Amino acid sequence: MKAHILTVGDELLIGQVINTNQAFIARRLNGIGVDVALMGTVGDALEELSGALRSSWEAADLTIVTGGLGPTHDDVTRTALVRFFATDLVTDEAVRSHIAELLAARNVPWTAAADNQSLVPRRARVIPNPVGTAPGLLFHDGGKRMIALPGVPYEMQEIMDASVIPLLRPLAGGAAIRHRTLLTTGIAESFLSAQLGDLEPLLGGASLAFLPSPSGVRLRITVHAPSESEAEARVQEVETRIRARVARYIYGADEEEMESVLGRMLTERHLTIAVAESCTGGLIAHRLTNVSGSSAYVDRCVVTYSNASKVALLGVEESLIAAQGAVSRDVAIAMARGAAGAAGADIGLSTTGIAGPTGGSKEKPVGTVWIGIDDPSGQLALKFQFSGPRIVVKERAAQAALELVRRRLLKLE
Amino acid sequence: MKAHILTVGDELLIGQVINTNQAFIARRLNGIGVDVALMGTVGDALEELSGALRSSWEAADLTIVTGGLGPTHDDVTRTALVRFFATDLVTDEAVRSHIAELLAARNVPWTAAADNQSLVPRRARVIPNPVGTAPGLLFHDGGKRMIALPGVPYEMQEIMDASVIPLLRPLAGGAAIRHRTLLTTGIAESFLSAQLGDLEPLLGGASLAFLPSPSGVRLRITVHAPSESEAEARVQEVETRIRARVARYIYGADEEEMESVLGRMLTERHLTIAVAESCTGGLIAHRLTNVSGSSAYVDRCVVTYSNASKVALLGVEESLIAAQGAVSRDVAIAMARGAAGAAGADIGLSTTGIAGPTGGSKEKPVGTVWIGIDDPSGQLALKFQFSGPRIVVKERAAQAALELVRRRLLKLE
Fold it and tell me: What are A169-178's pLDDT values in tens digits?
């Protein structure tokens, strides 16, 4: 089954909103063996949208359209679909009562916009939206399908997972595509490539992509095979061969986040962590607490931007800061020790550095970051030199700090 | 000038990487009056990419291609360009010595990949990449232009701003497009629409889009006019009329972030802030410290996930937590007071709630969040009921907390 993804909205075409929806949809379609052949983006204009609907309907077996189903005047997708499928709008009682429930729960009164949201194209099958007012719509004709979903990301995601994927899975059938992504960090793309060596014997017909980001380089293996089980077996063979060469740099796979990997390790080992952040400014705490259940191993974190707060909250000695500077090995270690000590945690982790764009010097340029750790194996601080704008330096430093904890737990290096 | 943006990479087509590049490029092109007519995404396949290059070259005056210029085997853009423009590769000495400098600064040895990266198409003009190894490439023929840029976002951004936009600005000329986005928070899309009333007299020919997100609803005004000055004047008229109706909900404009707006207000008023986060888990601290110069008003923040840490770091009484529960008005206020007191800050801000997906109860369902503040006007806590998955609840709560500080500073409500 060949799919197109069409995203609608002037906000995308002028670059105001980043298109996360097309990536999510592509990932889910790939997961059931549906190949995405094209992604396109058009504005909130009836004619352009109608043209795009027509060409996707002709070229693809399945078109997924998102955006433009809301209650305001610039939402043109429903109108375009009514015209394209030569149908009209009727009130759907189930949609209407669902909207009434949602509004009541939020203490929001019924408005004309809600009347409008209760209308659906007569020829469409309604796909329920449990978390929002605009339902999904499915059109089916001559073996082809077009599915329209609201553009609000978590509403679209909910509908995809609860309804669209279950509906498409039995239709996808046939040949299987499998992707496996191995997540590395702490090694540059060119080094990773050199360590992997000759790719042909490694891959045996599979393909491999290198995807660099501030968090590290991802290695994506792709296999096409006649059956799901064969695809899975071949992906695993390639994964095993790659791991044999670069295992130490791989912290996870697929959509895993470092904080989830680390959370699992801490939970299994019954360890707790406390964090003292200077240059990462709360990003490590934010990432750790993005994991459901993190309250079991995160007791507290502190963001100590000032020297006074490093002294007061972490017991770092003023004389040490005066002698070495706040961005130094000894202060990083004292911060980590102070964080663990104050919280009674097993592991203390710290960052202190210069995120930029100002504050750098010749000796300590922007991007200089010390990461300190105090854990059952002892104390250590490592110096890093990161590049990029402020937010990228924060991201790289947070990732390197979490990776340091992971490596210490696994006794790597 | 009509532009297409073409992004290249299997990682995009399978949804592994979110396409932030096309949004960035579109924003910059719009800024100099260049309309983006289409955004398309293709995979790392020579034939598909060549086809896409050809159709964009035919349909648009300007095509910007990103991705696939790196050193590994799956980077096919340079090859596709060499074929499309019927040219060959030659070593560029300036590119070569720039790569040598970059590698030396990073203590990375010269490899065959670096030799390869020094090759550029003979017909292309090199656009320097100050922060990475792959240069940008410009092809120019018969009044049409194609520009290829690396896919690493901050490298692409650097090249766009330093070289591509200055190069295109004098060519864009003519009619002007102006966008202005007013950022609102704390009001639902349907309410905002109702408060604005009849849009026609409000807009006078301009267009208005409603863009909802977890952080609030953005209102984007778009004006097309014969000259830059006229476009600017008309955008300002519409903005003034909109502000007259919904000013209290507008915290900023265009690409401003709440944390920058708030940072400016705190700086002007010589105020400092300390934050105690429970359910937002460091996100407020992370956002505040994303602003360069935030060390002037952020002394410290604490993430107090456990009851013990609320007692130890913030002086919240154990008996209060036992009596009211950690998610309560009184604990929120005590946390805010404790944060400000410990740091000697002018403003204390706190969050305590249930981010989910577990931990909810009938009385305190997932999404229940108390936000507390202690500032020169007194103490207050407000209860919110947010919807969405864990990360969205964190985002909504962080935004509402920052907005509460803003409103208190402006004495709104």
Answer: 888 876 678 8
Interface residue B288 vs chain A (CB under 8 A): yes
Tokens of B296: 């002037």
Proportion of chain A in helix, strand, coil states, percent, rounded to 5:
45, 25, 30
Which residues pair with residue B311 across a beta bridge?
A: none
User: Are residues A249 and A269 located together in one domain of the fold?
Assistant: no
Give B257-280 as a DSSP string.
Answer: -HHHHHHHHHHHTT--EEEEESTT
Q: Is the pLDDT of residue B357 over 70?
A: yes
Contact of B171 with chain A, judged by CB distance below 8 Å, is answered with no
Identify the residue whose tokens are 């995601």.
A157
Domain end, chosen from A141, A172, A203, is at A172
Number of domains in chain B: 3
User: Partners of B184 in the beta sheet?
Assistant: B250
Burial degree of A207 (CB within 10 A; 0-12, 13-18, 19+): middle
Give the domain range for residue B302: 258-409
Instruction: Verify that B216 and B288 share a domain, yes or no.
Output: no
Contact (CB<8Å) B390/A290: yes
CA A192 to chain centre: 23
Residues A168 and A276 in one domain: no
Question: What residues of chain B lie within 8 A of the CB of A280, using their CB?
Answer: 286
Q: Which residues pair with B392 in a beta bridge?
A: none
Classify the C-alpha dihedral A234-A237-A238-A239 as positive or negative.
Answer: positive
The 10s digit of each residue's pLDDT in A232-242 is 999 999 999 99
Q: What are φ and ψ of residue B170, in 5° steps?
A: -65, -20
Q: DSSP 3-state assignment of A374?
A: strand
What CATH number is attached to the domain comprising B313?
A: 3.90.950.20
Output the six-digit token pair for B203.
Answer: 């807009």
Mutation site for A-interface testing, chosen from B286, B316, B327, B391 by largest number of A Cβ within 10 Å: B286
Give the Cα separation of B67 and B149 in Å (integer). Answer: 7
B311 and B359 in a common domain? yes
Q: What is the per-residue pLDDT for B174?
A: 61
For residue A117, the chain B residue with the least C-alpha distance is B190
Do B181 and A18 count as a contact with CB atoms less than 8 A apart? no
Residue B46, chain A, CB below 8 Å: the answer is no
Whether residue B11 is found in the same domain as residue B160: yes
A5-49: per-residue pLDDT in tens? 999 988 898 888 889 999 999 988 987 889 898 899 988 888 889
**CB of B24 within 8 A of CB of B160?**
yes
| pLDDT confidence of residue B33 | 82
Do A180 and A225 fall into the same domain?
yes
Question: Helix, strand or coil for residue B350?
Answer: strand
Do A241 and A289 share a domain, yes or no? no
Which parts of B100-152 are beta strand (E)? 119-121, 125-127, 136-141, 144-149
> What is the distance between the alpha carbons of residues B229 and B226, in angstroms, rounded to a whole number?
9
Quick check: A286 and B288 CB within 8 A?
Answer: no
**Closest Cα in chain A to B180:** A16
Two structure tokens written together for B43: 């995979």
- Asked if the interface predicted TM-score (ipTM) of this complex is over 0.85, the answer is no
